[in-house]
Write a structure and sequence with these properties.
The complex is a heterodimer of chains A (514) and B (516). By secondary structure, chain A is of the alpha/beta class. Helix content of chain A is 46%, strand content 13%. Chain A folds into 4 domains: 2-31 and 331-457, 3-Layer(aba) Sandwich (Rossmann fold); 47-181, Rossmann fold (3-Layer(aba) Sandwich); 195-317, Rossmann fold (3-Layer(aba) Sandwich), CATH 3.40.50; 466-497, no CATH class. Chain A has helices at residues 47-55, 69-73, 99-104, 107-121, 132-137, 141-152, 168-182, 195-201, 218-227, 242-246, 259-273, 285-299, 302-330, 342-354, 369-378, 391-400, 410-418, 436-452, 455-458, 470-478, 480-485, 487-494; strands spanning 18-20, 62-66, 93-94, 126-130, 156-159, 205-211, 231-237, 253-256, 277-279, 334-339, 358-364, 384-387, 405-408, 422-425. In chain A, helix 4 packs parallel to helix 6. The longest helix of chain A has 29 residues, at 302-330. Chain B has 516 residues and is of the alpha/beta class. Chain B folds into 2 domains: 16-306, Nitrogenase molybdenum iron protein domain (Rossmann fold, 3-Layer(aba) Sandwich); 343-515, Nitrogenase molybdenum iron protein domain (Rossmann fold, 3-Layer(aba) Sandwich), CATH 3.40.50.1980. In chain B, 49% of the residues lie in helices and 12% in strands. In chain B, helix 1 (16-24) packs across helix 7, helix 7 (142-161) packs parallel to helix 12 and helix 15 packs parallel to helix 16. Classes of the chains: A alpha/beta (514), B alpha/beta (516). At the A-B interface, helix 1, helix 2, strand 3, helix 3 and helix 4 of A face strand 1, helix 2, strand 3, helix 3 and helix 4 of B. Strand 3 of chain A pairs antiparallel with strand 1 (8-9) of chain B.
Chain lengths: 514, 516
Amino acid sequence: MKEKTGIVDTLEERQPYIIRKQERGQVIPLACDNNSLAGAISQRACVYSGARVVLNPVTDAVHLVHGPIGCAGYTWDIRGAKSSGIETNRSSFSTDMKEIDIVFGGEKKLSNAIDELVGIYRPPVVFVYSTCIVGIIGDDLDSVCKTASQKHNIPVLPIKSEGFKGNKSDGYKAACDALKQLIKRPEEETVEKKPEVSQKARKPKINILGDFNVAGDVWLVKPLFEQMGIEVIVSMTGDSTAKTISRAAEADLNLVQCSGSMNYLAKWMQQEYGIPYLNVSFFGIEDISIALRKTAEYFGSEEMKKQAEEILETETNRIMPEISRVRERVEGKKAAIYMGGAAKALTLIKGFSELGMEVVIIGTQTGKKEDYEQISYSVRNGTVIVDDANPLELADLLVKQKADLMVAGVKERFIAYKLGVAFCDFNHDRVVEFEGFDGFVNFTREVDASINSPVWKAVKQRILKPEGVESERTAVKENGENISEKPCAKKYKEMHMDPEFLRQNQDDAVESQV
Amino acid sequence: MTKRNYATVNPCVMCQPMGSALAFKGIENTMVLFHGSQGCSTYMRLHLAHHFREPVDIASSSLSEKGAIYGGRENLKKGLKNVINRYNPKVIGVATTCLAETIGDDVSAIIREFKEEEGIGDDPEKDIIIISVSTPSYGESHVSGYIKALDAVVRKFAENSEKPKIPEDIEIMDYMENMEIMGYTEIIEKEKVAETLQEAKSPDIKETTNGKLNLLPTESLSPADVRELKEILEATAGDYIFLPDISETFDAPLGNELPKIAPGGTRLSEIADMPNSRASLGLGIVSKNLALAYLEESHGVPGHSVPIPIGLSNTDSFFTELVNTIGCPIPEEYQKERGRLLDAMVDVHKYLYGVKVAVYGDPDTVFSLTAFMLELGMNPVLVATGSKSRDFGKRIKQIFEEIRPELEPVVLDGIDFDSLNDAVSECNPEILIGNSNGRYIAKARDIPLVRVGLPIHDRVGAQRILTVGYRGALELLDRITNTILEATDTFTAPVQVEPAAYAGQGAEKEFMEGAQ
């Protein structure tokens, strides 16, 4: 086996970041959580991007990027996060720093820009993101924001997100630090929050952390809890407002979905306000069931548990025919997962298993050691696990692992397409909900459409070889002498029809079936 | 127009490194590396992938905090090494970002050092060519990034292939000066243009030429546009060098394998041959074409610029220039295409006459589009570009004076989409023409948007949008007309029975007076 020289052909320094789950031994020596290698073409973005994707769904905030125009331009309305009301977050605000601002400092411009925007938009909060050069020229964001805050009597929060100061995860943290400042201490209640007490006194309350309402996901999840008699105070940050975020500390429980970005905030809320948290997912029947049952169990009410079971039964029965129909069409297909964070990757493994599909490649941009341990535990032997992959590695893996479908974001989409591999977007760009019961139906339908489209049959033949096509054969006979004399006809003969990577090769077979 | 002075709301430009990538990606076997933090390359890859629907690999030196403090030397070298190792390119275009520029890395020196360490020489036949260009995000826009990158490419190859005729120090001074006045020009004054034209026409301006014609645009054209122009050149000039050629690299056929670097692009031997060409033809007259000027000043290649050939008169000028420079006749095929365009213009003139249109985008594209709108009898009430440009307004006014002096358009440069929105409220266009980012305005005002330019990420086919040549004009004409027909079918009364649509205050006044 080529195991010694690496699973794929890549840079030596990248080898430790790619492993294959083997039959024996759970301990994974996968390298992760490091800065990206120069020149390796990481799919990761920067600290600013991490902060921006977490905060961007706060709908009524002015998201002001203090930096040159590019940073704001490329992140304009980048997340398909839906709002049920105001959409200030869909505009792109920038101080558009020019050379003169670099030389003389951008504080004055920033302060003027804040005044201007607060005057026009009257937002309840302004997030001010710092970009690379702000960190270099040393604008004092804290003091500008503090002054502006006092002047306008609203929180103006500096987000320390200089692109080079770490990676995307550091941006998540910076975003959570800003959210912390928006959360207010509840006034009336200082009583210790015991589920029994609070449940009797009033309606149980929860927050959903790490759901960004992409395509309206949250709107398919919230009603489930409401049916169980639970009030969802806020989803952070999907479809949230400064006001709903400020009430977050009134909750009895936090449900954390995107752990990579929100565990930090959840831990803080536990310390600061005594609110416990559970890691859950709202994707796939199994994970939704776990989420509802765990929540009901936490509140300990029999009534609630009964309601949860009722919801699960009705909803599962409702969608199962459609899921089964698709399952028949996609069963046994091999999936590749490459996600930003580990939580989504993990829940996808379960989702695919509900469809009878097998995961052959799984990777993330920002997974931590514990995440990869859990991933390794969840996948079959032979699955390749990769951290901070690059396009060449992904392309090579898709071919070698014979993936039929890839689930990732836009940058990966065209790699898959060029290789003739089906693709499903589970990132900012998708336009249909994937969470909740109906979301899972949407997902399965998309998987079906992606895998079973006849275009994949068409693209198996990349070069037209007239001799090989039945209907063309007669034409060749009729004008035989003309065609064979054309130089191109000769050329076509020499070209092979089926690309090498599509051919079955027993030696290279995916090992997960062992 | 806008009440804002400090904040930019919804930018109408991208940053310089993006423009450099668009230029570098049109060169054979070339990789791009951004010297800066990881996010820059990822964001721009995303942006370009959205638009072209192709894999876009752009490397980064992935500067970390350490690199930012102690300098990015090691990161840049490592990045170059890894790119060479994995992609085996013939050329690496290194564009700086604001971070690299602000920490003050001497990129040329680092590259020199790297080449020495790795034993990379200057033999274009066997050595990797590393071209650096200074493109901080805080300077100008993607348009200038594009122009600067092309200039850097042409210079690098010219230097490699032959000794410059002018002493180096003067050349550098000249270069610096160019960079300084880059801000969309004070182009070649009229005399100089005439002079150049004269020179171009005289056959013995260059003692030794390869007989080829250089084609250098000032703005990124779509792959379909490049294909069309190449076809025209094939049929007329025969021997030409088109830089940069993204017709294949950003619109690659689904082939048997996925190459690490998309095939296609201008061949390196041809770029090296550009200083020997008989003449250069620049596409775009609003922004200064640095590469064209360099070839003229340092290598005596006469250069002349025409507008990007969008629309009838602009395509006419393009063909005329080809005929004058090359001395070839206009092929019958194109005469027929021109005839079909004329036929179509006659067919649709009633639908388009007086329709108020707002055009926005990159300066030269907007200039050419506006000229076409005027030829069609439309009323461009608002003409805007996101780039700051001194010449833009002047050029646009000129074209109005030539074709429809009675109209009074609002002409804006350096706008963002929020100020465009304000202007749209004031000018009340019935249709927008520009990139996808105008969709918010179009939707809010319930007017149609005809998508032209970059980015177009909310519709498919951006790479196949053809606007240049007679064929491009035809396609655009059909698209605009059908869009108007679609809109008037559903939303408003047909254009031809709505007097207000016969805009142009002068024309309207005339009409009224005539009626009396």
